[in-house]
C-alpha cells in the first residue's frame, strides 16, 4: 500500500513514542571501506547484453525482478555514503557487512565496495565536481537541472510512483534520478525520564509550553534542557526543516508558496510559520535554557549524554532517534516528540525522503545494471528503512516503527512546473540557504541570543529584507 500524501496515524502514547533513524554527517573527516565477498573468479555476466541495452535507455528500475534478472552478472561497484555508524563494531543495528552478505546470497558475483564519510555533505559535492565519483552515491545538494549530468534515470515519474514513495524528491523533467534510502519525519528527540523528573507530564504542543518545559528541566534537574549542537554546524540546518508543513499545516508551502511569499519570516501572531520555529531557539538561548558554552558542543558526545540523562532534548530529524538509543544503556528513556506548533488544534509533521541513492550516469553498462539491482534490493528486500526506524520507501510496504499520537504526516508537494530550481535560486541570491546548508544563519541566532547583540525581531527583519531583495533581483512574483 502506497504512503498517501496525507497520513494520520494514532499508535502508541506520545510520551513513549519511538521514532525514526537515518544517517548522520559531522564536520570531522573520517572514512572507512567495506567490501563484500563476491567471487573474484566468477564468470563474465550473461546479462551484460541487457546492461548494455540499459545504457541506451531501456534499463529500468520497474522492469527488474529481483532474484531472476542479472543473477549471473559479474562486476564490482562502489557506494559512497554518510552512514559511518553502520561500519562500527559497536553499532547495535544491522551493519553494512551484514547487508552485503545478505545481498550476495542473491547476487554472489556483484561486489559492492562501500566508503563512508562523516563530512559527507561537502565531500560528496567535491566528488561530483571532480568528475571521478562512485557508482552509487547518496545524492547531495545539487540543482535538479543538473541531475541528468550526474545520475542515471530510474524511470519516468508515473512509473516510479508505482514503485516507490517520495518519487518526486529527485524528479526533473518527468524522470526520477533518486530512490530514497529511507524516509523520515521531523520532531524532537528527548529523554523521557528527564521530562518526567522535571514534572512535565504532557508533551508541549505550543512554543510557550515548550519553553516552560525547558525551564522546568532547568529548575528541577541537572540536565541541559536543550542542547543546540552549535559546534557541529550541519546540525543547525535541521531547524529549517520545520518551517514548512510542521509550522503551516500546508504541504504546498515549502516548495511552491515560500518563494512567492512576502516577508515569510514575519510574526503571523499565532505561533505558526517560520517566525515561531526559529523563535523557539532564540528564546531558549536567551533564557539560559541551553548549554553554558555553545562553542564547545560535541555531536558524538551528545548521544551518550542524552542517553544517560545529561540532556533533556535536541531538535533533530527522526533519523537521530536510534542513534541516541544506541549510545548507552538507557534506550528505553529515549523518545521522539512532534515539534511544538499547533495549527487550528492539529499538529503536523513533514514526512519525506532522507538521502537518496543516485547511480553514476558515466558508469559502465554492467556497473549501471548492478547498481540498479543493488538499490532495488536495498529498497525491497533488505529491510533497511524499517531497521532504521524510517517510513516505508517501497510503495508496496506499510511497515514502519514511526508513530506520533494524533499527528498528521504531510509529504511536501513538489515545485510547480517551470519553478523546480527557483527555491535554489532564491537561496543563493538571499544567502539564506533554507534546507540547503544554511547552518551559519542558525548559528547566528544562537550567537545574537547569547550575546544580546540583536533582538529576534531584528534578525527576522534582516532575513525578510534579504528575501525581498532576492525576489526583486530574480523577478519573482509575490502573490502570498
CATH class of the largest domain: Alpha Beta
Instruction: Provide the CATH topology of the largest domain.
Output: D-Maltodextrin-Binding Protein, domain 2
Helix count from the secondary structure assignment: 17
Structural class designation: alpha+beta
What does this structure look like?
It is a single chain. This protein has 480 residues and is an alpha+beta fold. The protein has two domains: 1-21 and 184-347 and 404-480, Periplasmic binding protein-like II (D-Maltodextrin-Binding Protein, domain 2), CATH 3.40.190.10; 31-181 and 354-396, D-Maltodextrin-Binding Protein, domain 2, CATH 3.40.190. The protein has helices spanning 48-58, 96-106, 120-130, 147-150, 157-161, 192-197, 207-220, 245-248, 253-257, 273-286, 299-307, 321-325, 365-380, 384-387, 422-430, 439-451, 456-474, and strands spanning 6-9, 31-35, 75-81, 110-117, 136-138, 155-156, 171-172, 175-176, 179-180, 183-191, 224-226, 311-317, 334-338, 348-353, 356-359, 407-410. The strands form three sheets. Strands 1, 10, 11, 12, 13, 14 and 16 form a seven-stranded mixed beta sheet that branches. A six-stranded mixed beta sheet has the order 2-4-3-5-15-9. Strand 7 (171-172) and strand 8 form a beta hairpin. Helix 7 (207-220) packs parallel to helix 10. It is globular. Residues 1-56 have low confidence and may be disordered.
Amino acid at each position: 500500500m502506497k504512503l498517501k500524501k496525507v497520513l494520520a496515524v494514532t499508535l502508541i502514547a506520545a510520551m513513549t513514542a519511538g521514532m525514526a533513524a537515518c544517517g548522520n554527517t559531522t564536520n570531522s573527516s573520517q572514512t572507512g571501506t567495506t567490501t563484500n565477498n563476491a567471487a573474484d573468479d566468477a564468470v563474465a555476466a550473461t546479462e551484460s547484453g541487457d546492461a548494455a541495452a540499459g545504457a541506451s535507455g531501456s534499463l529500468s528500475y520497474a522492469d527488474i525482478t529481483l532474484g531472476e534478472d542479472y543473477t549471473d552478472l559479474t562486476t564490482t561497484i562502489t557506494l559512497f555514503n554518510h552512514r559511518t555508524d553502520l561500519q562500527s563494531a559497536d553499532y547495535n543495528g544491522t551493519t553494512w557487512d551484514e547487508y552485503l552478505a545478505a545481498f550476495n546470497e542473491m547476487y554472489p558475483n556483484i561486489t559492492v565496495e562501500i566508503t563512508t564519510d562523516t563530512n559527507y555533505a561537502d565531500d560528496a559535492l567535491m566528488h561530483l565536481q571532480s568528475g571521478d565519483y562512485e557508482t552509487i552515491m547518496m545524492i547531495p545538494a545539487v540543482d535538479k537541472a543538473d541531475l541528468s549530468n550526474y545520475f542515471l534515470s530510474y524511470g519516468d515519474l508515473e512509473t516510479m510512483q508505482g514503485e516507490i514513495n517520495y518519487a518526486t524528491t529527485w524528479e526533473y523533467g518527468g524522470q526520477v534520478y533518486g530512490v530514497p534510502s529511507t524516509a523520515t519525519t521531523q520532531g524532537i528527540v528527548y529523554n523521557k525520564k528527564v521530562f518526567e523528573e522535571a514534572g512535565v507530564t504532557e508533551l508541549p504542543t505550543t512554543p510557550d509550553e515548550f519553553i516552560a518545559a525547558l525551564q522546568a528541566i532547568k529548575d528541577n534537574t541537572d540536565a541541559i534542557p536543550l542542547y543546540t549542537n552549535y559546534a557541529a554546524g550541519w546540525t543547525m540546518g535541521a531547524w529549517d526543516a520545520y518551517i514548512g508543513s510542521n509550522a503551516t499545516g500546508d504541504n504546498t508551502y515549502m516548495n511552491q508558496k515560500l518563494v512567492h511569499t512576502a516577508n515569510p519570516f514575519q510574526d503571523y501572531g499565532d505561533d505558526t510559520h517560520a517566525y515561531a520555529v526559529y523563535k523557539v531557539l532564540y528564546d531558549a538561548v536567551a533564557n539560559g535554557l541551553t548549554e553554558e558554552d555553545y562553542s564547545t558542543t560535541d555531536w558524538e558526545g551528545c548521544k551518550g549524554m542524552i542517553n544517560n540523562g545529561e540532556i533533556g532534548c535536541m531538535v533533530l530529524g527522526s533519523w537521530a532517534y536510534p542513534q541516541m538509543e544506541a549510545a548507552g544503556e538507557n534506550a528505553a528513556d529515549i523518545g521522539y516528540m512532534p515539534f511544538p506548533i499547533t495549527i487550528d488544534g492539529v499538529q503536523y509533521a513533514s514526512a519525506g525522503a532522507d538521502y537518496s541513492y543516485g547511480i553514476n550516469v558515466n558508469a559502465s553498462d554492467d556497473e549501471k545494471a548492478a547498481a540498479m539491482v543493488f538499490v532495488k534490493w536495498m529498497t525491497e528486500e533488505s529491510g533497511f528503512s524499517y531497521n532504521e526506524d524510517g517510513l516505508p520507501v517501497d510503495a508496496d510496504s506499510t511497515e514502519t516503527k514511526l508513530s506520533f499520537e494524533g499527528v498528521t504526516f504531510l509529504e511536501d508537494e513538489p515545485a510547480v512546473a517551470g519553478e523546480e530550481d527557483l527555491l535554489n535560486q532564491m537561496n543563493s541570491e538571499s544567502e539564506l540557504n533554507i534546507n540547503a546548508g544554511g547552518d551559519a544563519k542558525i548559528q547566528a541566532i544562537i550567537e545574537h541570543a547569547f550575546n544580546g547583540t540583536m533582538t529576534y525581531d531584528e534578525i527576522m527583519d534582516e532575513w525578510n529584507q534579504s528575501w525581498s531583495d532576492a525576489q526583486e533581483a530574480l523577478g519573482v512574483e509575490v502573490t502570498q
